[in-house]
Write a structure and sequence with these properties.
The structure is a single chain. The protein has 514 residues and is α/β, with parallel strands linked by helices. The chain has two domains: 3-145 and 344-512, FAD/NAD(P)-binding domain (3-Layer(bba) Sandwich); 154-215 and 242-339, FAD/NAD(P)-binding domain (3-Layer(bba) Sandwich). Helix content is 30%, strand content 18%. It has 15 helices and 21 strands. The chain has helices spanning 20-31, 49-52, 84-97, 187-194, 221-229, 231-253, 260-273, 277-282, 300-304, 362-365, 400-421, 431-445, 449-452, 474-480, 508-512; strands at 3-5, 8-16, 37-40, 104-105, 110-116, 121-126, 129-138, 160-163, 177-181, 200-204, 211-212, 295-296, 309-312, 316-320, 323-326, 331-333, 336-339, 354-355, 385-387, 425-429, 489-493. Strand 1 and strand 2 form a beta hairpin. Helix 5 (221-229) packs across helix 6 (231-253) and helix 11 (400-421) packs parallel to helix 14. The chain is globular and about 75 Å long.
């Protein structure tokens, strides 16, 4: 159980966030026999991105049976591709089944975390009070903090403005002139959902996406009954979905030219829905498919052909009162602006709130070379601090839950290693190990479609480095994160009385086997 030291709670592990990553970490901790932990959540309920993104038409583009935990199979998915409400219900179900609610601390946004090198623990300030932890597991996720572009004159707009991840359900869209800015995964779901009710919809498209058909269908009662009665059928279904995507990885990571056939399928999908050659030309991408996230929809293109929809093939350049001006000089009047402009992915806001062993924030440590960590988890100079969905753990074609479960394996072994070492101890990733891992990742990235496909995507940071995607299969990542190699870490022990600070880690290299 949690201790109380110096007037505040002390726990062995503090998990930040209660989306798939945070809840998965909590379940894994309990399964490892660790109950001395809390889950810090800034909102009032679990769900992460699937709580925040409740815009019209919100759904997942990964098949339901693959977008769930292997240790918590769900046999009652109503559709092949689930809607937001069903995924959020699933996460609430996981919270209850694994008895996680006593560990949850809602309305507890983390304001600052500081490493205490004397006590070898993290001091954490939240909006609901202070606590400390031996280990921090950060599962804030890359899709948690919306990014709204700095558009000149936006503050002069008299109408309603909101981001897709902060949808204002109190605003009545019916009959209004609405501008949709962006053409990513959220926008292609929002556009067909709101097009029938708005008066006029203007889509500001900086870059057209590649869109493939969404092979969705309802899952009938008999099918669901079969999965409940014979669970191996659900496992087989999941395995088939996983295997297909593993086989596709080679084209994305090693042979992008093989994606030409997929491009032809996407162009055929566009041609069948959009007969106007001028509009079709505006909607045809000029880069290799897969360079940006491939989107799935059967309704996006048809919605764009409706008489109340205008497609501006340019970004939003400025706002002048209620007039929106595109980068191509075109104008449109609007009563509301919806930004579907993504999230802070390569500049995670949580990094500004983590102060490491040398007094620098994680954001400062990453300022020059971009986000970098050891096996997507540990950052040099930040002992006993781990990320779930860290740098270069994203996927371009499969389920992030697979990557999360691999990182949970790594987290579990990290905690086992601390137990084996015994006493008050911490593990700090060696800079050389972090550098070696990231050089290996970036070498593999060089020939991938994300780096060679001729686009600018949210996978890239400001320096043009892909710090988001994993350039391999999920099986390769699972193998790489199965065990913690102590040779990649410095072992820090609490200083004995009278021992100089410079000698505190003098035994590290021997113990780490370096």
């Amino acid at each position: 159980m949690a201790e109380h030291e110096h007037g505040h709670e002390h726990v062995r592990v503090a998990v930040i966030g209660s989306g798939f990553g945070g809840l998965g970490a909590a379940v894994r901790l309990r399964r490892e026999g660790i109950t001395d932990f809390v889950v810090l959540e800034r909102a009032g309920s679990v769900g992460g991105t699937w709580r925040d993104n409740d815009y019209p038409g919100c759904a997942c583009d990964v098949p339901s049976h693959l977008y769930s935990f292997s240790f918590a199979p769900h046999y009652d998915w109503p559709r092949a591709f689930s809607g937001q409400e069903h995924i959020r219900e699933y996460l609430e179900h996981v919270t209850d089944v694994f008895r996680l609610r006593p560990h949850l601390r809602f309305d507890s946004e983390v304001r600052m975390m500081r490493w205490d090198g004397e006590r070898l623990r993290w001091e954490i300030e939240t909006s609901s009070g202070r606590l400390s932890a031996d280990v921090v597991v950060s599962a804030t996720g890359p899709l948690s903090d919306p990014k709204v572009p700095d558009v000149p004159g936006l503050d002069s707009f008299p109408g309603k403005v909101f981001h897709s991840a902060r949808w204002d359900h109190g605003f009545e869209l019916r009959g209004k002139r609405v501008a949709m800015v962006g053409t990513g995964a959220s926008a292609i779901q929002i556009v067909p959902a709101i097009q029938p009710e708005v008066g006029r919809l203007t889509l500001f498209q900086r870059t057209p996406p590649w869109v493939l058909p969404r092979v969705d269908r309802g899952i009938g009662g008999v099918e669901r009954w079969l999965h409940r009665q014979l669970p191996f059928t659900a496992r087989a279904r999941r395995g088939l979905l996983w295997g297909i995507r593993e086989l596709q990885v080679q084209a994305f990571t090693k042979r992008p030219k093989e994606l030409g056939l997929v491009e032809q399928l996407a162009k055929g999908h566009l041609a069948r829905a959009v007969k106007d050659p001028a509009l079709r030309a505006r909607l045809t991408p000029g880069y290799r498919i897969g360079c940006k996230r491939i989107l799935l929809s059967n309704t996006y293109y048809p919605a764009l052909t409706r008489p109340n929809v205008d497609v501006v093939a340019a970004g939003l350049a400025r706002v002048d009162g209620s007039t929106l001006v595109g980068a191509d000089g075109s104008t449109a009047e609007a009563d509301a602006i919806v930004f579907g402009t993504g999230f802070h992915v390569t500049d995670m806001p949580i990094a500004d709130r983590v102060v490491g062993a040398d007094g620098r924030t994680l954001a400062e440590a990453w300022a020059d070379g971009g986000m970098r960590s050891l096996r997507g988890a540990s950052a040099a100079g930040f002992p006993n601090w781990m990320t779930i969905i860290g740098p270069n753990t994203g996927l371009g074609n499969s389920s992030m839950i697979l990557m999360i479960e691999s990182q949970l394996n790594y987290m579990a072994d990290f905690l086992r290693q601390l137990d084996v070492l015994g006493g008050r101890v911490a593990l700090d990733a060696r800079p050389a190990a972090v550098t070696a891992w990231n050089e290996r990742v970036q070498r593999r990235m060089e020939r991938t479609v994300w780096n060679t496909g001729g686009c600018t995507s949210w996978y890239m940071d400001a320096q043009g480095r892909n710090t988001t995607v994993w350039p391999g299969t999920t099986a390769e990542f699972r193998k790489a994160t199965r065990r913690v190699d102590l040779g990649e870490y410095e072992v820090l022990r609490r200083a004995r009385p009278g021992m100089p600070d410079t000698d505190r880690v003098s035994t590290a290299k021997v113990e780490a086997g370096a």
